[in-house]
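Same chain as my last thread, 393 residues:
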Amino acid sequence: MEKTNQPLYQQLMEDVRSQIENSLLLPGDKLPTEREFMQKYNVSRITVSKALNELKAEGLITRFPNKGSFVARSASPLAAAAQVPLEAPSALLPASASMQLPAVPEGSTSDTAFTEIACILPSISDQFSLSMVNGILSAFPMDSYICHLFQSFNPSLENRLLQKCIDTGISGIVLFPQDQPFFSEQLLYLLLQKYPLVLIDRNLPRLDTSYVIGDNKTGGALCLRHLHTLGHQRFCFISSARRDTFTVRSRINGILQEAEARNIPESSITIWDSFNKHQPYVHYQKQMMKLIREERITAFIAAESTTCAYLYSLFATMNLRVPEDISLMSFDKPLVESQRPDFFTHISQSEYLMGKEAGTILKHQIETRDPQVTHRVISPLLEVRKSTRAIVL
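reply #2:
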């Protein structure tokens, strides 16, 4: 701490206040312990205690016995949610999802107590996630619930958002979990506390909590069955995620199981994971041409709609036509500007229904205080469109 004419406790206060004002500390963030402040600033416990009590009196922090000090909700969780950028157009989302308070119903008072919940997804930037969010929101009356939407982007931010929900008293969470090698401290805490929590679109094995997921294994089998029925003999499955993630692994298992049932050798199926959709098309042209020319692959299955859209554009730069030269299908419905919305054959996971089921389970947990674990598996549907066709020999 710099030596100035200010009392030591005021210097500490100014430092913390500056971090809050500059968003280095956000609402709900936990401050260092008194001992940590003492060591960092080389001051006494009395000095630290006085500084923190003054900050509390100003309404900047809150203090809880045996828990510590936290940045206050003067910028409420709603404001904190807004700091996580939403790429999706707010017009596509209900008002509560756009970080706005629902209108007060006629005949009610303005101080109606709202139950606050959180919905955490890796991103909210495509039709799949938007539809899923709308399904979740449909389960909650807008005159009594506020839903805060967060984009986690990576495991570290997901853990921070979970901690923020815990610290700020959010009543329940719908979580589309990031893929992590180990369960986070926050998830284990929520489980031990029997906190209202529902996972969506991904189950975490060995974590006994409620979830709503699609039947990815059946979805993979449907893809291979459809393409093989059209006469294709060599296939490529491409995913932007690693093959050991729960969803991708289940889809691959479904494809391989269906291949075995149809006496298709495993060598006829190429698995390409960790595909980077942000690379320029020229980066993949040589590799893709090798798959098509040398390995004679005629059908591609994209694990994600955005990956499918990228592949469609990549093939166009290579003068390859879909479906005349290459059959291409996807999990979830891709959107490509140059094609009609009904162009792509895809696996529909009924994401709106998935979201609604997750919201319904969470609402029941909150309102009945019943921590009973509930599992829902949504059956996939094959939507045959124009991007796949029978092989021409």
